[in-house]
Amino acid sequence: FLYRHIHSQHHRLVVPYTIGALYNHSFEGLLLDTLGGALSFLVSGMTARTAVIFFCFAVIKTVDDHSGLWLPGNIFHLFFQNNTAYHDVHHQLQGLKYNYSQPFFSIWDRLLGTHMPYHLVKLPEGGFEARLKKD
């Protein structure tokens, strides 16, 4: 129900690109981004300065995950399992119900059964493509 009526708006953009990271249903934006952010700020006891740094970092990470670019030396790809390729699987037709883990922890996908393994394929014309692993 939630995917069909709420999150599917985010998937109208078949190919992820940076600005599409924050393209979502207004209810999803209010509930997850606004209320979720406010709740995490209040529960964690962050200072205002720490919160600004953390939320800016989270938005940059989310935008990077939707960029579709696998750039050498990308610090997010070095430190996080869920990177551009990981989330690209979520935007493929066969991967819609997998690899959510936004913006930081892929452990939730493993615990909740929504993890989809993939591998990167180097394309002859340059660049990489995330492809689902066959069982």
From TrEMBL:
Keyword Transcription regulation found: no
Residues in Fatty acid hydroxylase domain copies: 2-114
A UniProt-annotated Pfam family: FA_hydroxylase
Gene Ontology cellular-component terms listed: membrane
Keywords, ordered alphabetically: Membrane, Transmembrane, Transmembrane helix
Annotated InterPro entries: Fatty_acid_hydroxylase, Sterol_Desaturase_Related
Compartments where located: Membrane
Family statement drawn from the similarity comment of this UniProt entry: Belongs to the sterol desaturase family.
Protein name as annotated: Fatty acid hydroxylase domain-containing protein
